[in-house]
Amino acid sequence: MGKIPNRHKGNEQIQIQAMKSKFPNFSCKKKAGEIVFTGNLLIKPELPIYNVSVHYRFNFSPKVYVNSPTLDDNSPHRYSDGSLCLYHHDNYKWNADKLVATIIMQWTIAWIYFYEAWLQTGVWYGPEVPHKNDTKKEVENEKNNR
Questions:
Q1: What is the structure's pLDDT at 133?
Q2: What are the DSSP calls for 43-71, one per residue?
């Protein structure tokens, strides 16, 4: 019997090529069930350089972490694992056909911009939706989809 092809293999290469094209300073590491893109983002010259990791997990929502600088413990729009809340799962549905380089990276840049404004003013100027128990709901959805 032949080997069953990995149905995500083609998309994997598309994601890697798109990131190399749009964010050439980002490295790429393949791990079990995900691709991790890591690199620096300079949002504006007067802001610090942010080192971020994007965990592309095919049909599961990508997870984005800020490695440095250290984020304020009370910063809004983060999950309990420290990853950034970039969108509300009721408003946007991720799937493996969407590009990290064009969607997730732009939302990450916007999140950092709004975070820096929040540090200055204490007000989150970015879009937001009340979350209630959404973090638990997303975790349950992920478990059920595996």
A1: 55
A2: SSTTSPPEEEEEEEETTEEEEEEEEESPP
